[in-house]
Amino acid sequence: MEWSRTFRKRMHSFERSFSPPPGAEAVSVKIRVTSGCFHREHSPRAYEIIDNFIDKASGELDFGFEEHESGPELLVYVAAVTAGISLATSIINLIDTIIKARSEGIKRGDHPSDPLELIVRRVQKNGEFEEETILRIGHQEIIKPEVIDEHLKKSLAELLNKDEK
Predict the structure, then answer these.
(1) How far apart are CA 102 and CA 104, in angstroms?
(2) Could you report the per-residue pLDDT of 107-132, keeping only the tens digit for each?
(3) 86 by DSSP, 3-state: which?
(4) Rg (the chain; Cα; Å)
(5) Which residues, in sequence order, are CB contacts of 13 under 8 Å at separation 6+?
(6) pTM of the model
């Protein structure tokens, strides 16, 4: 339970720090290693790639970036639009970069090489915490950004619709 309290505080802090677009909801997208660690100490080459991407895109990204031993977490706003869920292309590209950086880092000597999970988390309006693992990606697996986008949008639509029921 302590973890979910910490998560709620992190989400509320993000919501206070970044102004949401009209009709947008705050969510967490976590890229978590299934076992071991995925942080700077064990994955310096991967984080070099991630940092370079963030530095180059800093003007077009409006998000929170949290580093954890188990992997990075992005705090983002998701807009529900007429055609479905809208997640900024730059966020999809960052997620894709993190996944590819993990693979590239392993090729260059980062450890360990356990699979990654792409997880969506959210605090519902009633205060309940929800989490869904939407993809599991091996370090040698190639995944297209369109697949990431498709899985994220489907999961986010389900999470956001739960508040309306």
Answers:
(1) 6
(2) 999 987 899 999 999 988 787 888 99
(3) strand
(4) 15
(5) none
(6) 0.90
Would you tell me how many other CB atoms lie within 10 Å of the CB of residue 122?
23
How many structural domains does the chain have?
1
Give pLDDT, residue 165: 55
The dihedral sign for the CA sequence 164, 12, 48, 41: negative
Q: Return the amino acid letter for 99.
A: I
Other residues' Cβ atoms within 10 Å of the Cβ of residue 56: 10
Q: How many Å apart are CA 75 and CA 88, to the nearest integer?
A: 12
Collapsed DSSP state (helix, strand, coil) of residue 74: strand
Contact 41, 68 (CB under 8 A): no
Backbone angle region of 75, left / alpha / beta, with phi > 0 → left and psi within -120 to 50 → alpha: beta
Alpha helix stretches (DSSP H) within 58-144: 89-107
ω before 21 within 30° of 0 (cis)? Answer: no
Instruction: Return the higher-pLDDT residue of 81 and 19.
Output: 19
Q: What is the mean pLDDT of residues 10-31?
A: 89
